Amino acid sequence: MFAVIKTGGKQFRVAANDKITAAKIEGNPGDTVAFGSVLMLTEGEKTTLDAKALSDITVVGEIVEQARGEKVIAFKKRRRQNSKRKRGFRAELTVIRITDILTGGKKPEMKKGDASAVALKAASTATKGKAAPKAAKAAAATEGLDASNLSLISGVGPTIEKKLRAAGIASWNDIAAWTEADIAKWDEELKLRGRATREEWVEQAKELLAGKPPRAKADQAELASGEDY
């Protein structure tokens, strides 16, 4: 049995005991993570592609280690301008060992520790129905939304989203963890012109992780045009 899952904007073909290296997921070695975004399941000669059937499937893994990718050097020189710039970048990665593929709506037993946003979402889904009406309504607001969908943050258009992903920023969790120093750093390196502060990206990311609806409705015209204003 194997499944195809999506995390950090990438797809992975996984089976029990496989190891994958994905975009950083918050957590410590030994923490359990659950992936609810399953695109395909193959069991013997039977392949499932139906979205409704796949919604009852959860891929469970365990964080092996937090790692970093190889250094990438970006060197820029302007001829006859006495201008040179050299920058290095290493992507933050997480090595995960797949432990099980649960079918039939079964939910994983989450180990104690700092679980990832994906794991927390799976845990909240498992307790759905026991929550208070207000909490259930908040969870429904972001149910089915992918934490790697940066465009749900108001002010992040297609062009800026490409810049963020190229810099290794692949989920709401990454932005929610920004400090003032991080904001200043990315504002300068990615030429955001103060948008992160002005549009309150960190607050928006925390709201999305908390289950609140996205503020990005006002940006639909911008997303449709494919330009950043």
UniProtKB/TrEMBL annotation:
The keyword Transcription does not apply. It comes from the Bacteria. It holds the Pfam family Ribosomal_L21p. Part of the 50S ribosomal subunit. Contacts protein L20. This protein binds to 23S rRNA in the presence of protein L20. PANTHER family: 50S RIBOSOMAL PROTEIN L21, LARGE RIBOSOMAL SUBUNIT PROTEIN BL21M. The keyword RNA-binding applies. The gene is rplU. NCBIfam families: L21. Residues 207-229 are annotated as: Disordered. One of its GO terms (cellular component) is ribosome. Belongs to the bacterial ribosomal protein bL21 family. This is Large ribosomal subunit protein bL21. Keywords: Ribonucleoprotein, Ribosomal protein, RNA-binding, rRNA-binding.
